[in-house]
Amino acid sequence: MTMNAIRQFAASKLFDRIIIGLILFTAALIGVEAFPQWMNPTLEHWFNLAHKAVLAAFIIEAAIKLLARMPRPWEYFKSGWNCFDFTLIVLSLLPIAAEFAMLGRVLRLLRVLRLINAYPELRLIVETLLRSIPSMFHITILMGLLFFIYAVLGFHLFHEHDPTHWRDLSYAVLTLFRIVTLEDWTDVMYKAMELSPFYAAYFVSFVIIGTFVVINLFIAVVINNLDEAKYAYLRKLEHPELHDQLLQTLVSTKSSIQELEKQLQTLKDNAGTHSQAPQPVKGTELERST
């Protein structure tokens, strides 16, 4: 197989579908292994062989992608997803992965995350979340200050009456986390209202500020970055990178030149065959020669 054929195969939809099928097959194996009542020593042996075969297939995949980048194989590592795939392969080949069964299971489970790289839509969502992390930093600081103020205030107000939820600062923070998730937070409020009904304002104000304001700020940041990521993705599709465009053009031109060379060689062979064919001798020339 020539390098041109390897590049075309690595960029083909068939190659992507094969990898997606391997990932789904790995997910099915991991899911079945989570039912211990179905497993037996014979089945575990076959499952281990299947995992080894899948690992070998992923090694071949990485090798194909590296060969497709020749003569610049380092460009394979410019993609964070390719680095993630390569890291999983290297860790799976280390002896420590075979010695510790739990580590091997975790590495197999992480292979399922490769579905994110297989689908551009999923990859776009993950990239949006990563892009949102810097914007969320200041919102996280605001959330931390809010939790600290309300946790200290709640401890001093309710720790004697309700030590289960307000025993110390750590319990108070966990209680506030329960309240901000709206998980049975009214039970905590009614317990505090046994002291005074006016303490309901404490919980209502925290729910309004913590849930309907701060949490919605997180959502707004993610949606805003999602729109920006979609715009960048569409712009990339409309204006592909010059390097990739030139490489594709060169590959196409090379294929066309090779096809023309084959046609010219065929024409030359046919012309040579016709020129070497014996010419018929006319009767007058034959008589003249005699």
Automatic annotation (TrEMBL):
Chain ranges of the Ion transport domain: 13-230
Superkingdom of origin organism: Bacteria
Segments traversing the membrane: 80-103, 136-157, 198-226
Topological relation to the membrane, as annotated: Multi-pass membrane protein
Region (Disordered): 268-290
Statement: the UniProt record of this protein carries the keyword Transport: no
Keyword hit for Transmembrane helix: yes
Keywords of this entry: Membrane, Transmembrane, Transmembrane helix
Compositionally biased tracts (Polar residues): 268-278
CC annotations in GO: voltage-gated sodium channel complex
Subcellular location field: Membrane
Classification via InterPro entries: Ion_trans_dom (IPR005821), VGCC_Ca_Na (IPR043203), Volt_channel_dom_sf (IPR027359)
GO MF: voltage-gated sodium channel activity
Name assigned to this protein: Ion transport domain-containing protein
Organism: Arenicella chitinivorans
